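Researcher: Let's run the pair from yesterday's discussion. Sequence first, then tokens, for each.
Model: Starting with the first of the pair.
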Amino acid sequence: MEPNPPFGGGRPEGSPVPAPLIGVSTYLEPAARWGVWELPAALLPTAYPRMVQRSGGLAVLLPPDAPSRAAAAVARLDGLVIAGGADVEPALYGAERDFRTGPPAEERDSWETALIRAALELGTPLLGVCRGMQLLNVTLGGTLTQHLDGHGGPLGKAGVLGAHPVAPVPGTRYASIVPEETAVPTYHHQCVRRLAPGLVASAHAVDGTVEAVELPGAAWVLGVQWHPEMGEDLRLARALVAAASAASPAGLPVPR
């Protein structure tokens, strides 16, 4: 009889490589209602996990937790998506609150900031979406414009996405993924004001608004101001999943 394999074993020769595990941060809402229940909830639009799934990844949702546990969570992931949502707390970038800035989301700010820092430290591929891109910029020392007209949905239609063209910056990682100008689904009223040290702009809107940022170098770190999960173009998500697959140890399952 052969000896027992070490704890956790290994992937049997010839078996399929497991899909990379992609964590997606979630909203934290004070109350949600379904059936007879009305309770606090951690939730996420299904477009996010479906985008990951359609791109070849295995999606796992990350509700807000103690920031001290972020590194342990990210260590179990192959990739990370910081989702869109509430405005980033202006105090995090040294600004007074504008009256048009949304209500605080302190628990989410703290958790997602810790997730971003852990992903950067561990070299985990990271995609920030809308708020996620803004928080990436703030986490690294940048600032935001608290209100911007013309980048939300159609005038007078709350909760309806708009669209506008985005042009890639030649030579960037984003341009290598999406080399042409594209129309993207968009809904936001804040944007990057001062880029954080080390970040570069990799796409712009017609009015000059920074629409994508990235960290140059080997690490796969990219943020976009629009909502790729709401469109049909999967190139960004597929690039994230490919980077997550490449970052996993060859032939061995990622520790879970």
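Model: Moving on to the second of the pair.
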Amino acid sequence: MSVNPSREELVERAAKLAPLLRSRAQWIDENRRLPDDVIAAIEESGLLKMQVPAQYGGYESGTRDFVDVLAEVARGNTSVAFCLSIYASLTWMSALWPDAALDEVFATPNVRISGTTAPTGTATKVDGGWRLDGKWKFNSGVLHAQWKITVAIPTDAGDQPVPIFALVPIADLEIVDDWHTFGLEGSGSVSTVAENVFVPDHRVITGEDFYQNRPKSVVNAEKPQYRAPVLVPVTAIQTGQLVGAGRAALAAFVERLPGRPITYTDYPSQRDAPITHLQVGEAALLIEDAEARARTFADVIDAKAVANEPWTEQERVWSRVQIGWVARQVKQAVDILAQASGGSSIQREVPIARLQRDVHATSLHAMITPGVNIELYGRSLVGLPPNTVYL
């Protein structure tokens, strides 16, 4: 019987990727996608198996494993880490589908699943399945994916529509090259279009089943890790890339310090200036706090899975604010370091500007935006109900 790799081994594999990712950073941004050698290295690392169900040769790794692994990947490149976080999140989600659908999806070695949960298309019921039409934006990593989770509103849904969630082969969709952004350029988060695409019934589940975590897989339904509310582990996974970006920014800043003067001052080295000590100290504390929070969040999820404990509404609200606060702390830290990096830091070969753009872009994600999540948490503390179903 094979033994799954430990967290330490997985983190070591991620760390070994970092030099290649750093060397390809400029190509990744300029080409707005991941290069083939990076994809090959990721496949060889085995990290894509972390959220694959065990019956298909996967590791079923814990949430904390992913936080630590993605933190290491982000130290190499944040766009790569973002894509891996999406593949992990969507692979976890796919485990809710019927086993017949999973047999198709996981027949591909190192399968990658992209998608969004925004219902921006329509679905028409037909014999044996559904016909999809529509356009979906922000499909991170889709350029290197084989499958996509696509959400649509049934055309006969009535006054209270319940969306359907469909697993669709990428080959059935049109790719629209419209990802021209300031931040996370390499995630290749282009749009996809479906025109009269047929999806058989076994590759479709309802929005109620999805958000209530009612697995249609007979095998996976018995596993406690798939009983957590779907958005809880998904948001926790995302915290790792933010922590890694913060670490990378701090390391890059300190590396550039020796011998760099502060222009138009008497300081021959920025390292000797008290203002630098304050900036580095504050940024480091923010990053340390963010990392501690991310790890605590992940540990809570893993502990509840082991104990097979249900999640209350208040706990789901608490989980939602965790990633918002981590994003806020890391963004503050990176902004401090970027501001202290001087005019030369805007050159493309200097990492800090890229990291600042990528952290800013990540913090704008609808599930991550700090202000929205903090407000949600505050509502719960004063006794008001959540103003969202996305918990």
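Researcher: Give me one sentence on the second I can quote.
Model: Residues 82 and 241 are 7 Å apart (CA to CA).
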